[in-house]
Amino acid sequence: MTQTRYPHELIETQQDLDRAYARLAQPAGPGGSTALRRRVIRLSAQLLAHPYWASEAGAGASLGELRAQAREHAAGGGSP
């Protein structure tokens, strides 16, 4: 099966979202978690509103595959 090539900025946004979710899973510090929750929402919206999904290249792409590739790249398994 051919692996979809996602735009670099989508891989980076997904990685940022993964890091924000991981931080959100930690106990809230003195400032609470409101800013972090807002960041998760903003990154999610940015990811889903990216023009790639409306393009011909993005027609058969999936968020699950994007997540997997972002994690692979973060682990040093590839370059975006």
SSE diagram, text form:
Layout: H1 8-24, H2 34-48, H3 63-74
Helix pairs in contact: 1-2, 1-3
In short:
The protein is mainly α and 80 residues long.
What does this structure look like?
By secondary structure, the protein is an all-alpha fold. Helix content is 55%, strand content 0%. It has 3 helices and no strands. The chain has helices spanning 8-24, 34-48, 63-74. Helix 1 (8-24) runs antiparallel to helix 2. The longest helix has 17 residues, at 8-24. The radius of gyration is 14 Å and the shape is flat.
Oligomer: single chain
Helix-strand sequence:
HHH
Beta strands, count: 0
Round the Cα radius of gyration to an integer and report it: 14 Å
Major sheet description: none
Low-confidence region ranges: none
Mean pLDDT: 90
Number of helical elements: 3
Fraction in helix: 55-70%
Given the helix and strand composition, which structural class is it? mainly alpha
**What sort of overall outline do the alpha carbons produce when their principal axes are compared?**
flat
The end-to-end distance, rounded to whole angstroms, is: 19 Å
Strand composition percent: under 5%
